[in-house]
Amino acid sequence: MHIQVSAGLPQVAPADGVEVIERKGIGHPDSLADLLAEAFSQRYALYGLEIFGEVPNHWVDKTTLVGARSRVDFGGYSIESPVQAHLFGKITRAVGDQHIPVDEIFRGAIRDLLPAATDASSIASHVESSVENTAGIAADHPATFYRPAQGGDLADTHDLRANDTVFCSAYAPATALQRLAISLENFAAGPELGADLPTGRDVKVMLVRTGTSVEITVCLPIHPEQVAYRREYAEVVSEARRRMDAHAAAHTAKLDTDWRLNVAVNTKDRQGGAYLAPWGTSLGKGDCGLVGRGNRANGIIAADRGDSGEAIAGKNPLHHAGKLYTLAAERIAHRIGMPNHTVLVARNGDRLDSPSFVGVRTREKAGSAEQRHIADVVEGEMAALSQLSKWLLTTPVLDRFRHPGLLLEA
């Protein structure tokens, strides 16, 4: 394993600088696609462990949600065509002559995940599902890779190999603005609003900090059947804005700084629009969701930070380098204990616990003791990849979405 420690990391988000952070809410179509792919992968893997003692090979990180066609107005909505949920990817359908109920597992994930994520029990009855399995026989894998004759043909957990050539990166520490973005989305999509206001969970928050001035834009869906007139809608949005403004003002990110906050909600309303969404998500009015377009592993999308662009949802939790290295890089970056940018590189076929390259960039030149500490952190995380896989198999996907910091506690 080659570990390269270098200096020259630029200062990110200085107090007098500019920082832009976005977080897509738990009910956003892209978030739902990520969550659904990951929920399927988790259920499929656990089924394999229970029946065969191993996780069958699978790779469904192209899962897509096609939004419902609907008619929406104040006072109600009608669904003209349902949501289409497509599971695309390579999936082991059977071990020998023992069938794996892939379609049933996918439908079960839809039935449980979508209502829980949107807090709309009726959404599941308006979803049609399909599975497009592209797994065949290729020269780069044994014929039994996706068509195992027996449980022993499944992945050898004692000699796991990277199944992709990929780089994955992460940075630390998180900024105060990032923490505020996650907190605001959880607040807006949580019971603090939804318990007594007809708000949905397809929230998006965009935070732009210029020096000490922070502009916060929130897109907040309202259930159309619960607001009969524009006046009622405007009252809900106004009250939601008041509560979010108070939440932001009480957050430690504000209390520990001299930031001036301005919260705007549903800015398109100024041109006569209204964010009305069946089931509280734009998936109910035609918007589509794709795996990989949602938040990154740290829970946000940052405009000015390095990003590998890997979509981790739906990838095999045992040996997909793009998934495990993205999460391992996140853990390494935070455990180093100083500002840094960490990159892990995998080469297809190499041992998964031995990256072909590890790059850690710090602000100042690291001394010998710091370099040894960094190497210890990297080696420790690589040795613990099996624990990371176990965490992926056992931690509920909705909990992981709401609390990205759980990864650092695994």
Might you state the CATH topology name of the largest domain?
Answer: GMP Synthetase, Chain A, domain 3
What is the average of the pLDDT values?
94
The number of E-state strands comes to 18
Helix content range: 25-40%
Topology order in helix (H) and strand (E) letters: EEHEEEEEEEHEEHHEEHHEEEHEEHHHH
Count of the separate structural domains: 3
Q: How widely separated are the two ends? A: 24 Å
Describe this structure in words.
There is one protein chain. This protein has about 400 residues and is an alpha+beta fold. It folds into three domains: about 5-10 and about 165-175 and about 295-410, GMP Synthetase, Chain A, domain 3 (2-Layer Sandwich); about 20-25 and about 175-285, 2-Layer Sandwich (GMP Synthetase, Chain A, domain 3), CATH 3.30.300; about 30-150, GMP Synthetase, Chain A, domain 3, CATH 3.30.300. It is built from eleven helices and 18 strands. The strands form five sheets. It has a five-stranded mixed beta sheet, covered by helices on one side. Strands 3, 4, 7, 10 and 15 form a five-stranded mixed beta sheet that branches. The longest helix is centred in the N-terminal third of the chain and has 24 residues, at about 30-50. The mean pLDDT is about 95.
Describe the secondary-structure layout:
Elements: E1 3-6, E2 18-24, H1 29-52, E3 58-59, E4 64-66, E5 69-73, E6 76-81, E7 83-91, E8 94-95, E9 98-99, H2 102-118, E10 127-133, E11 166-172, H3 176-188, H4 191-194, E12 204-210, E13 213-219, H5 230-250, H6 252-255, E14 260-265, E15 289-290, E16 301-302, H7 321-336, E17 340-346, E18 357-362, H8 368-383, H9 385-394, H10 397-402, H11 406-409
Parallel strand pairs: 1-18, 7-10, 13-14
Antiparallel strand pairs: 2-12, 2-16, 3-7, 4-7, 4-15, 5-6, 8-9, 11-17, 12-13, 17-18
